[in-house]
Amino acid sequence: MAIDKTQTSGNSNPEVDNAGRQVSVSVLASMIGMALRYIAALLTTQALGIRLFGSYVQAQTITQLLSMAGTLGLSPGVVPFVARARLNADEPGMRAIVRSTWAITVAASGLLALALFVLAPWLARAAFRDPAIAPMLRWLAPTVAFAAVMLASLAIAQGFKALRAQAIIEKVVTVSATLAGLIVTWQLDLGVTGVLVATLLGPTTGLLCSLGYVRARVPGALQAHAPSSAWPVRDLLQTCWPLLGTGLVAFALSSVNILLLGVLSEPAQAGYYGASVRMLPVVFVVHQNAAQLFYAYASERFVDRDMQEIDAIYKRTARWSIWSAIGAALLLVIWGGDILGLFGPDFAAGAPVLSVLVIGQVITAMTGSCGKAMIAMGRIRQNMINVITMLCLNVVLCLLLIPQHGALGAACAATAARGAVRIALAAQVWWTFRIHPWSKDSLIALISGGLVYVIAGRFREGGGGEFGWTVALAACATAWLALSLIFGLGPRDRAALRHLLVRRR
Questions:
Q1: Residue 246: is its pLDDT beyond 70?
Q2: Given this model, what pLDDT does residue 450 score?
Q3: DSSP state of 346
Q4: Cα separation, 102 vs 262, whole angstroms
């Protein structure tokens, strides 16, 4: 078994320690974004109600799926190209990569946005039998292009290891713009139209900020007279096509269930599921940021076949993911009904759906950044096969469970498919590269989670009253944070955290 160098080594690795600081800032940005997104969801559900919220969730899911398709796999496929150009100080080559990425994305996503605008009435009538979706799709069609170009630009930023800027733009700036729009339109009592206008503001603002950031990092990228190498359009597309399939399938894992609920059930069931899904980021926020950082570092290290460093960052990022995911899962499982009830009294019935979905996210965190490991180390097609398997299993289970069990059936299908394939994927990474994400801290996290669940479950009502449960929730969150700081952080993690706090003073 490989030794966990992140715990046993006394020597500091500046790059890996910087990883901790990068993730700390990006996680902070993500948590701020989650809080803003939660407030935005509260305003949205109050304005729409559960049925229209279900229609809105389905329309938003379609546009997000098309946005990802519009990148043609350049997000994240362009990251290694940018990393190599940066390491080689190849400014003309960097400009060529950036310009090619933007040109491809604008062309592909623009066509998809136009097609969605034209076909919206047909989709609402033939697929969902819900006339409320048609105007929503037409209002949100421009976000297909805006979000696609933003995602591609943020992938370029990731090639510069700019995870902080990426997180701030994607998870704070865009959500803040949407929330500001919701507040204004709420005051003006614009209803559905106000929600759709506010939704447009987010990707528009994020697009402008991401373009500005790339322009600052790649001088001359938007200037026609600045010299550049030949545009590597063919190389980019050849490399990114497999990633497009993987990305679409991966996104479909979280979105296809909402669409199937619209087809096989009713909008209210999609509303339950959509509200529950909006709570999940708190479970995988650290895992998501840690996986992006692992991918950026592993892509470089694998060029030199430095498996020791890859193994170190693999274990270290997994440790962050596991502790944070279990802590957040405890809160959502124990107080899920109370939290969902804040959206409106009708939403509290979705608590079982939320609990089942949370289990799937914990399994994802427990298996570490295994998908990113396969991609970073050249096993793109094998990873795509795994993700396709997960999607197919999920769809089959949805077809069996949704007609009878609605949103709960969709949640069970998602968790069963995700859990089975993620465990198999972690085993493949071990078999191929002889690295795994676990250490003794993983077992400590599981045991601690079980003990906290038993204790917190006895005091879930807190001091009583309508919001007495918030006292118990805060106490549980504080206790888990203390356990995480004591057992979940290694010596170098604490050193990086102290360094970050000193810099913030």
A1: no
A2: 92
A3: G
A4: 34
The answer to whether 151 and 106 have CB atoms below 8 angstroms apart is no
Q: What's the CA gap between 479 and 469, in Å, rounded?
A: 15
Determine contact, residues 52/132, Cβ cutoff 8 Å.
yes
Asked if 7 and 488 touch (Cβ cutoff 8 Å), the reply is: no
Taking alpha carbons only, the member of 285, 220, 315, 291 closest to residue 76 is 291
Interatomic CA distance for residues 296 and 187, integer angstroms:
43
Q: Residue 438 has which token pair? A: 């676990």
**Distance from C-alpha of 298 to C-alpha of 429, rounded to nearest angstrom:** 13
At 466-484, the pLDDT tens digits run: 778 888 999 999 999 999 8
Instruction: Say how many Å lie between the first and final Cα of the chain, rounded.
Output: 41
Which region holds residue 44: left if phi is over 0, alpha if psi is between -120 and 50, else beta? alpha
What 8-state DSSP symbol labels residue 265?
S
Q: Over 70: is that where the pLDDT of 497 sits?
A: no
Give CA angle at 262 (257, 264), nearest 5°. 85
What one-character DSSP code corresponds to residue 342?
A: T
- Please compute, for residue 490, the number of CA atoms within 13 A of its CA located in the half-sphere on the CB side: 25
Contact 289, 163 (CB under 8 A): yes
Q: What is the pTM of this model?
A: 0.76
On the question of pLDDT at 164 being above 80, the answer is no
Other CB atoms within 10 A of residue 119 CB: 16
Confidence of residue 58 (pLDDT cuts 50, 70, 90): very high
Q: How far apart are CA 71 and CA 245, in angstroms?
A: 11
Residue 20 — pLDDT band, cuts 50, 70, 90?
A: low
CB 315 within 8 A of CB 438: yes
SS3 label, residue 367: coil
Dist. CA 364–CA 360, nearest whole Å: 6
Q: Are 386 and 421 in contact (CB under 8 A)?
A: yes
Instruction: Over range 216-234, report the average pLDDT.
Output: 84
Q: Are the CB atoms for 433 and 309 separated by under 8 Å?
A: no
Helix pair angle (307-341, 14-70), 10° resolution: 60
Tokens of 29: 């940005």
* Angle in degrees, 0-180, between the axes of helices 133-140 and 191-217, rounded to the nearest 10: 20
Integer Cα distance of 286 and 318 in angstroms: 9
Q: Please check whether residue 286 is in contact with residue 427, taking contact to mean a CB–CB distance below 8 angstroms.
A: no
- Examine the pLDDT at 353 and tell me if it is beyond 90: yes
pLDDT tens column, 84-115: 888 888 888 889 999 999 999 999 999 999 99
Task: Judge whether 444 and 322 are in contact, CB under 8 Å.
Answer: no
| pLDDT above 70 as % of the chain | 89
SS3 1: coil
